[in-house]
Request: fold
Amino acid sequence: MTDFLDIHPGGDLFIDGAGGDCTPMWESYHPVKMAKQGPNEKYWIGMVRDYWDFYAWDGEFYNTVKERVEKVVPKENR
Reply:
């Protein structure tokens, strides 16, 4: 999207969602017809992995962070 930034009618607003699922932003800021069509495929670089895992207490992200913290921070200081 960086190539599109200078000509995007909404300015750099879409940077707020960089790295995540921007579907809600896309749907709320574009006309219904355009929102249903989705963004132009020439700007797609890949799919965002399942972001729900990021917020789940039993998800891979949380468990990985917890394990890393437990390795560095002594139990009595947690």
